[in-house]
Amino acid sequence: MNFKRTTLVAFFSIVATTINVQAQNSEQGKSKIIYSWEANGNPVVTHKYTADAAALVHNDTLFIYTGEDFEGGQKWYSMLKWCVFATTDMKKFWEYETPLKATDFSWGETKAAWASQVIERNGKFYWYNSSQTTGIGVAVSDRPEGPYKDAIGKPLFTNEDSFGKDHSWRTIDPTVFIDDDGQAWIYWGNGACWAAKLNDDMISYDKAYGIKMIDIQGEMEFPYTEAPWIQKKDDKYLLSFAIGFPERIAYAMGDNPEGPFVYKGIINEIAGNSNTNHQAIIDFKGESYFIYHNGGIQADGNSYSRSICIDKMEYNPDGTIKPIIMTTKGVQD
Asked: Which CATH homologous superfamily contains domain 103-299+309-313?
């Protein structure tokens, strides 16, 4: 009798999820939603492994872009594709079908759908992606959920552009933003942080300005590692990034997008069971959120099978960031 009851509950749960997905597809006039659910704390996504979150607010919707990790037991990062999730209330989420795969970049590595970020300009959505050694590419779409396609057929930046270091995985982890004067900036890097001005077309950069290595001043607890994220708040530029290994997320502040930046401290400590720690910081409907990943899906969660989490973030009156409190409850009231 208990077996029958459990079977019926599982059956109706599947039916409800299917109906919910179909309803959302019908409501939004498209057939690209493949899964929907209501978040139950952290990790937020539990039906697959996800890492390296980036976030974009478009209209009343928060879009979250990630790479997809293989299941547990991996010995290295196996990431074939990127994912896109969305929510309007931080409770109900849905996933669109695969918007972009590593193999969509013919020049890139086939198992290295590494960290990325999407930005909107002039009605187009530009997705800056990285692989392990081949550099940073850019894909474009008419819709935030995609599908996306390689915009230029080659990397926008390669290791030749990331001067001062010589390891092969230094040209990774792009972050982008458009300043109040309309100038778009891109930052990237493992072992150091480099920056360039993007041209208005968003698929080339200002060769006259060139590429600068960002100066982060002040004594840090651990050396800069990777994962830059740039934002502007109250006329200050906040550059957050991973330090040390295992990684913590720290940040620095500056008066100009090209720096120098002054180190302010650690805002997120080591995220459980994961050597890496990659953040997105976003304001959405009056709240600030810190999106990151950990290895929190046990027993197979680990540094190569990660899961994204979301916690609220707060600022001090002087614009500095309060340390993040990582929770299993997440942002649910």
From this structure: Glycosyl hydrolase domain; family 43 (2.115.10.20)
